[in-house]
Amino acid sequence: MRILAENQVQLLDPSELMRPEPTFADKNPSKFRDYSMDTTDPLKERVRQTYRQMHLNQTVDFVKGRREHWLKFNTIKMTVREALEKLNDLVDESDPDLDLPNIIHAFQAAERARAEFPEHDWLHLTALIHDLGKIMAFYGEPQWAVVGDTFAVGCRWGDSIVYRDESFEGNPDGDNPAYNTELGIYQPNCGVDNLLMSWGHDEYMYSVLKHNKTKLPHVACNIIRFHSFYPWHNGGDYKHLEAPQDAETKKWVLIFNRYDLYTKSEVVPDIEALWPYYQTLIDKYLPGVLEF
Ligand SMILES: O[C@H]1[C@H](O)[C@@H](O)[C@H](O)[C@@H](O)[C@H]1O
Ligand SMILES: [Fe+2]
Ligand SMILES: [Fe+2]
């Protein structure tokens, strides 16, 4: 029997969920996710350019092509630890809050989840591996098709997407009447798992988990699948495409978001010392050599 998501939710103090500002963040929470433009600031420009390429090039056809390529899972075979260690060499170009290798972020997020929910070991591992799909960047995928916030393709772009007003300029789907309406290719309330998402590390890692028959609970896979869908879980867009069961997914994505976003800091955890604990979780939920 799977760990019941409902049980887990009851363990939460509802005031935790309501509290907008985490007390553990190293900087003022309102300072995270600053996508304001400043062409003289190299980090801000790096972020903006990554999204510009993403928003220009992520079309329905592009996404279908990348799914066709990656969802054969014939790129590489490796263990979770090997994949995580690859993230030593990845700095996420879409991220205004972190200029450090992504493996540090993985352990920062996991350790925070562990501190808040010591009994939910599945959540610790979920946090550790949530960005593992970024290994695509080492196998030919440009960062704009790997990192960053995601959005649905095949319908009108959500208003809360970062840089929404200018960065989709020239994306052909914007002129296509099949794709540029409120519903586009979707039925009302079809549910987020029926959306064709812009191609990136979320959907890829979700599919890798399912392909490799993870023992992680389904809600863990969904957290990973939608953690970058900020225009939905944070911006309030796409409500007309939500199905009732998406409320549960959203609730967990928002809990998880606290560990994902607000732990980003310059404080580097002692990764060597932490490996033995996390290896036991990998062996429990996602053992051996995986097909990516
Ligand atoms: O820049 C970040 C980063 O790429 C994260 O991994 C992603 O999940 C976030 O949505 C994004 O804002
Ligand atoms: Fe991510
Ligand atoms: Fe992350």
UniProtKB/TrEMBL annotation:
Reaction equations catalysed = myo-inositol + O2 = D-glucuronate + H2O + H(+)
Q: Which Enzyme Commission numbers does its entry carry?
A: 1.13.99.1
Question: Broadest EC class?
Answer: oxidoreductase
| Keywords, alphabetical | Cytoplasm, Iron, Metal-binding, Oxidoreductase
Q: Per UniProt, where does Fe cation bind?
A: 105, 130-131, 201, 227, 260
Where in the cell? Cytoplasm
InterPro entries documented for this protein: Inositol_oxygenase
Please classify the protein's predominant subcellular localization into one broad category.
cytoplasm
- Binding residues for substrate: 33, 92-94, 134, 148-149, 227-228
Please identify the protein, giving its name as recorded. Answer: Inositol oxygenase
Q: Which organism is it from?
A: Drosophila melanogaster (Fruit fly)
Which gene codes for it? Answer: Miox
